[in-house]
Write a structure and sequence with these properties.
Helix content is about 40%, strand content about 15%. The protein is an alpha/beta fold and about 425 residues long. Helix 7 packs parallel to helix 9, helix 8 packs antiparallel against helix 9 and helix 12 packs parallel to helix 13. Its EC number is 3.2.1.21.
C-alpha cells in the first residue's frame, strides 16, 4: 500500500509548454537563443509556441483534473517574472501564474512550483550566466519575488530542476543551452546553482510555510567490468552525478576530488534546511574504466533491457534501488518528481502503460523496504518541446498535435487515472 497522503501528480516545464515567448512582457531566455541557432534542435523547432499552454492552461487543467491527480508540478519562467533577471517584477508575468495557481486550487489540485527549469534570462547569461557568482544572488532575489506573490498558495516548492543535467549538458558537453562545451571546467556552474538554491530556500522561508525541496536527476551506477579501475570509475561517476548535488545540501560538504569556487560561508548557505529530496529517475548508467584522459570514466550502454524511443533502457528495479540507496545514505523524505518515457504511439501506447506500471510498483517496493517516499509525478502530462530533440520525442500521457493544438489522451492517461483511483 501507499502511505496516507501520498501525492500522485504530473510534471511539466515552462519553456517546454508555455509558448507566448514574447507576450506579456516576457524577456528572452537562453533556450530562446539556443533553439533559434541553426543546427541546435533536431527538427529545427523552438519553444515559441509549443503547446500554447499560456493561452490554453484551463484546458490543460481540465486534463489534470480528469486524471484525478493530487498535485501538478510546473515551472515558473524566470524571464516572465524578471525579463532581465533582475529588478522589479513584471506584473503581467506574475498575473499569469496567479491565474494558473488559482485555477489549480479551484479544481482541488496542489500547485507544486519549480523556480528554475533551465530557462535562465538571456541578460544574465550575457553577464556570465551560472559561471558568474552574482547569478546565484539574482536567483535568491527572484525566489523572494515569487514567494511574495505565490507563497500563500503554492503547496510545495522546488528550487532547481536537475542541476547535474544543466551543468553537464549545458556547460560541459554543450548539448543544451547555453551550448558551452567546457567538460569538467563546467563545475563552477554546479556550485553557483547550489549557492542559488540555498539563497532561494532562505528567501522562501520568509514568504511561505510550505515545504521546500530540489529536483535532482539521479542515476544508479552499474559498473561494467570487474577491475579495480572499473570500480573506481563507478565511484567517480556516482560522486559526480549523485553525491555532488545532494551532500552539500545536507551539510555534508562536497565529495572529495572536485575543484569548486567555494568561499567562506557558502556551504552554510547551501545547507539551508530542506524538507525532502526530489528524485528524477529515468534509467541507470553503465560505467567502466576510462579510455581517454578527458573524464575519469567511460559511459557504457546497458544491454538486455527494452528501450524507449530515446534509446534509454527501461529498468524499473533501478528506481527501487535508487530510493532504497538514498534512504540508506541520507534518511530523508523523498518525492519522485519525474518519471516517464518517450514513445510515439497514440492513442494506444501499451509500452508507456507497462513503463508506468513497473515504476509505480518500484516505488511501492521501496516504501515496503522502509523508504519514506511521499509522491510520484509522471513526466509528462502532455507532449512538449523536448529540448534538443524538439518535437521528435513524445513523453505525454496526452498526445498534442502541434499544428492544431488538439489534445488527445492516450491509453496511458486512462490507465494512470484508473490506477490513481484504485489507491484511494
Amino acid at each position: 500500500m501507499f502511505p496516507k497522503g501520498f501525492r500522485w501528480g504530473a510534471s511539466t516545464a515552462a519553456y517546454q509548454i508555455e509558448g507566448a515567448s514574447s507576450e506579456g512582457g516576457r524577456g528572452p531566455s537562453i533556450w530562446d537563443t539556443f533553439s533559434h541557432e541553426p543546427g541546435r534542435i533536431t527538427d529545427g523547432s523552438t519553444g515559441d509556441v509549443t503547446c500554447d499552454h499560456y493561452h490554453r492552461y484551463r484546458e490543460d487543467i481540465d486534463l489534470l483534473a480528469g486524471l484525478g491527480v493530487d498535485a501538478y508540478r510546473f515551472s515558473i519562467a524566470w524571464p516572465r517574472i524578471q525579463p532581465d533577471g533582475t529588478g522589479p517584477v513584471n506584473p503581467d508575468g506574475v498575473a499569469f501564474y496567479d491565474r494558473l495557481v488559482d485555477a489549480l486550487l479551484e479544481r482541488g489540485i496542489d500547485p507544486v512550483a519549480t523556480l528554475f527549469h533551465w530557462d535562465l534570462p538571456q541578460a544574465l547569461q550575457d553577464r556570465g550566466g551560472w559561471f558568474n557568482r552574482e547569478t546565484a544572488y539574482r536567483f535568491g532575489e527572484y525566489a523572494d519575488h515569487v514567494g511574495a506573490a505565490l507563497g500563500d498558495r503554492v503547496r510545495l516548492w522546488i528550487t532547481l530542476n536537475e542541476p547535474f543535467v544543466h551543468t553537464v549538458f549545458g556547460h560541459g558537453f554543450g548539448f543544451h543551452a547555453p551550448g558551452e562545451a567546457r567538460m569538467l571546467g563546467a563545475l563552477p556552474t554546479a556550485h553557483h546553482q547550489l549557492l542559488g538554491h540555498g539563497l532561494a530556500v532562505a528567501a522562501l522561508r520568509t514568504r511561505s510555510a510550505s515545504p521546500i525541496t530540489i529536483a535532482n536527476n539521479h542515476s544508479p551506477v552499474r559498473v561494467i567490468g570487474d577491475s579495480d579501475a572499473d570500480r573506481a570509475a563507478g565511484a567517480a561517476y556516482d560522486a559526480l552525478h549523485n553525491r555532488l548535488f545532494v551532500e552539500p545540501l545536507l551539510g555534508l560538504g562536497y565529495p572529495e576530488g572536485f575543484e569548486l569556487p567555494v568561499r567562506d560561508g557558502d556551504l552554510d548557505i547551501i545547507a539551508a534546511p530542506i524538507d525532502a529530496l526530489g528524485v528524477n529517475y529515468y534509467n541507470p548508467t553503465g560505467i567502466s574504466a576510462p579510455t581517454t584522459d578527458e573524464l575519469p570514466f567511460d559511459m557504457v550502454m546497458l544491454e538486455g533491457y527494452p528501450m524507449t524511443d530515446f534509446g534509454w533502457p527501461v529498468v524499473p528495479e533501478g528506481l527501487t534501488d535508487l530510493l532504497t540507496d538514498l534512504h540508506t545514505r541520507y534518511g530523508r523524505p523523498m518525492y519522485v518528481t519525474e518519471s516517464g518515457c518517450a514513445y510515439e504511439r497514440w492513442p494506444e501506447d501499451p509500452d508507456r502503460i507497462e513503463y508506468l506500471s513497473g515504476h509505480v510498483e518500484a516505488v511501492r517496493a521501496a516504501i515496503a523496504g522502509g523508504a519514506d517516499v511521499r509522491g510520484y509525478f509522471v513526466w509528462s502530462i502532455m507532449d512538449n518541446f523536448e529540448w534538443t530533440e524538439g518535437f521528435t520525442k513524445r513523453f505525454g500521457l496526452v498526445h498534442v498535435d502541434f499544428d492544431s493544438q488538439v489534445r488527445t489522451p492516450r491509453s496511458s492517461y486512462h490507465w494512470y487515472r484508473d490506477f490513481i483511483a484504485s489507491t484511494r
